[in-house]
Amino acid sequence: MSEAPASGRRAPLAAAVFLAPFLIIYTVFLVYPLFKGFWISLHDWELAGGYREYIGTLNYQDLWTDKLFWRTIRNTLYFVAITVPTMTLLALALALAVQGEGRVKAVLRSVFFMSSVFSVTVVTLVWSMVLSADKGLLMPLWDVLGTKPVNFLGDAVWAMPSIALATLWWGVGLPMALFLAALGQIPRELYEAAELDHASRWTVLRRITLPSIRHTMLLVLVLQIVGQFQIFGQAYLMTQGGPANRTRTMVQYIYDTGFRDWQVGYASAMAITLFVLMLGFSMLQLWLGRRGEDEA
Amino acid sequence: MGRVTLRDVKKTYGAVGVIHGVSLDISEGEFVVFVGPSGCGKSTLLRMIAGLEDVTAGDVEIGGKQMNDVAARDRGVAMVFQNYALYPHMTVRENMVFGLENIGTSKTEIAARLDRAAQILQLEPYLGRKPRALSGGQRQRVAIGRAIVREPQVFLFDEPLSNLDAALRVQMRTEIAKLHHRLGATMIYVTHDQTEAMTMADRIVVLRAGRIEQVGTPIELYERPANSFVAGFLGSPKINLLKGRLVSRGGTEAVAEVAGAMVPVRVTGGAAGDAITLGLRPDVMTLGADGGLAATVDVVEELGNVRLVYATLADGQPVVAELRGPAPLKVGDAVRLSLGAGQRHVFADNSQALTLHDGGAP
Fold this sequence. Notes:
heterodimer, A: mainly alpha, two-stranded antiparallel sheet, 14 helices, about 0% strand, B: alpha+beta, 6-stranded mixed beta sheet, 5-stranded antiparallel beta sheet, about 35% strand
């Protein structure tokens, strides 16, 4: 038997040592809770006290017939469908508008990013005031039009789009910053070559800019899907899920079930369902992106 | 058509001047090389002709039309960039026809031009590939092909070979020269490499710090440099520029003293006692038994047909001699370098040439 050189033996050990902190945190705070959550979802499990009974898939069967749960899935999907494409396009449009040199653009970059640093309570407070039906910022508009003010947050149709609007305003900064970084990576010579090649602005956008930032586009979409599925704070603070559960989202239902009604087992079953949904849509997005790349 | 005229062209960025009044006339079909050290403004000047940089003052004319305020796309120029600037998400074919598609050229015309360019540049096997699947030399050819299909009035090359390895650079150099003969179009070529300038140019424009130092054919610039900068920039190995002074002058005949040696020179000006720089190409020197410049050998580089002898003169100035024929020299040998028939350049203290050439004026 030949002995491996000392350095050859030490390399995997060194790698393990460097990886250990991450692996430990990852296991303790992510892997373990995920499986624990799944385990809890198989129980009738109360938040306080010791009542824990294994009930198999009974929680999931209850979910299947829970009308309110389906309602929250529909609401959440509706919210995701409004916000993800709009947010991505808006962030891209803003990034294209404010990229490059110039003092005005630099100021605008900060301005558009600034809303991201506010906490959700501030954002929802601001927008509740803006959209308020009796003393909102839009009152002069209704006066001019001579119509009755629309109670956006109390209206079955307008409540969810209003929450989406607040979310766009709040969250557009980060995807815009990601797009700005990606746009900054595109070599200037490509645009100069395109100028000499008589490319119109639209052609430049379609054939040079967009293909160059497709990876960032994919990243933004996946981050948005993961983020917007977890909508909770805005809806909880602006409408409390109303009117008539029109804005009750999955996470809010999970929160209410787990921490108001103490039904942690049932809430965990919902959380696992949400996780599967998010994973599915993210994978779908990545798969679509990859497929496009092979063709391109 | 492809005539380019610059009239007192200036460029400043804020308070910083980059180009300080350049005037130049480039005839149709001419191959002109802008050469100079980094930061001399040669690329900026090219980009001003292309329309990628604004002209601060002066006139840029192409084909007899003033172009200062004409967009780059409408100037009838095509440019080959240093890093190629190929569109990474398009195939070679798409890269090459992109410009023609944008101006609505007919499909048959596009196909014909593409075929011709691909054939000239031997790109047929690669038309379906993306740039990232090509070697450096192939990318360079695609960049040139993209320019060719446009059939521009003027081709602009911005250091196109500097990202290639030495062997490929020599090969592409001859290919571009051939291409110029074949197309007969006006070409303006920027480089910092004096060999590229000497081998490719009809005329060389030597730039330094935003000003033209001298314009002329390669051989004119080599044989009759207007100043010590041009003399030092062109030629390899570099010319020896030796500090000395004039000890006597009678008419055009003068004697210069360099490192204790008396060197007869022919000049158009200067007076006894003036500090001068004597410019001696390495190949004018031969080994002599006595007379000439006394020197001590530092390094001998054997190149087969010639050998380069790096030596130090009596007063400490370094000197390079390119010697032919056998010469068993060792480091530390004391040698005497005789001056043969070649030109002895004399530059005044302000670096301007005082040399009297066989045609008269310097």
